[in-house]
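Weekly sync notes, structure subgroup
Attendees: PM, AL, DS (notes)

Item 1: joint prediction request from the bench team. They want all two components modeled as one assembly rather than separately. Inputs as received:
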Amino acid sequence: MSQDVYITGIEMLKFGRYPDRGPPQLGAEAALGALDEAGIAIADIQAMYAGSVFQSMIGQRILQQIGQTGIQVVNITNACATGAACVREGWIAIRSGEYDTVLCVGVEQTTGMGLLGGAKTGPIPTDGLLGSATMPSVFGEAGIEYAAKTGATIEDFAQVAVKNHHHSTMNPKAYLQKETPLDVVLNAEVIAWPVTKLMCSVNVDGAAACVLMSERKVKELGLMGQAIRIRGTALASDPWQERDPTMPDVNTVTRLAADKAYAMSGVEPGDIDLCELHDCFAPIELPHYENLRLCEDGAGVELLRSGATELGGRIPVNVSGGLLSKGHPIAATGIANLYELSLHLRGKAGDRQVAGAKIGMAHVVGLGTCSAVHILEKA
Amino acid sequence: MSDTANPPKAAFPFIKIDAGGRASLTAVRCKACGSWYAETHRLACARCGKREFETAEPTLTGKLHAASIVERGFPGTPTPFISAVVDLDDGPVLKGMLRGVACKPGEIPHGRRVKVVFDDALGRKDAEGNSYVSHFFEPA
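Output from the run, pasted for the record:
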């Protein structure tokens, strides 16, 4: 007998700079927030899935802050899909029948880390000789590949940044909350053409956490009124493609994860009311419209230009501000996306509320490469 | 340069330097499905899973698939430069530096014909002072 799995408590810290606190403290605060919302205590948690790309044993270090109960803790790293992978594993643990109540936490401190993604090591430095391994360059190249196929322009890429930065002005938990007109985005410092600084996600500190429960437990505790049902959950690794991994392919893997999540949920693309997708660099938002089936293949540019992905449009994308503006604390991002969807599904997203939102999709890509897609619905 | 200097080494496994100092590309190809790998040894094919490979010499010509103009790189890498992904005409996909063109968007259209050349690895030396030979792309 399979049961649905629900989110009954979810929290995200305001993304930003926390120089006086460490990852365990940030993770602990998010975890406590999630527990409080679910109305349970750490003693009620039966297992924990925790993620941090730049920390080891983060789950135990969080429990050392909030309650060392001796439960199973699994620490996960899956690049930028780390938080989403924690939720996916928590879902599996509950579906297996082993647990009823699971805590998932993602946390990262990236302030001051500069360009992420190290060049390969060898007897001599290889950056430059092997092209660039910096993320702005890798995603700039992915954007150029998309432009060659579709006719997307650098102005389209910039418009993605304009849109997401605009959305974040309505999100008090976003790191940046500032309008960035098109000319400001285009004239910002070029990091790796076609990517300017305002087309790059921001290195910030952050944490997000959620409590997952089995249907039986949700009913027992009377929490269905606040519960968010996980209708679809999928995690995929990069299937073989001619250029991958020399040129990481984030498209095929996203399609694979999205199609699995759609199939599991029984939801059609047209049913999605809002989407938080992995806009780590502005150009890549456009192919992801297509990869996530929000539009037909080749129609991503048109979807953007039509205004459909703005708040108030047919399928608002990254109304939180996205990674570009809300910030991208690597391992926290996957759960923060679910936090954003949960706000909208509960009608509590304030000025940026997507009216009548019933079903939301969250997507992340971990370069290297993996992709996770979740489809949530208000219970 | 002193007479005792060691001959330059290949910067990457897919570069072969013969006794005369001539550099070429080397790669392996899956005997079952033909997939190329810019490597010298592989256990199995990532595409089909088969385990037999043959060593083959890729062509030194290809076309630009995608590129970016890197203005800000990792510390120690001079900028700007063009980071390029190239589909060799018969060989694996290679990533490297495109030189011999201005660092301007108009110079890096998708599909531009390029060739592979070999040169000193930007003056970089290892801890023992050895020089290295790397691949570069130039307009064909």
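Discussion: The radius of gyration of chain A is 19 Å.
Action: AL to compare against the crosslinking data before next sync.
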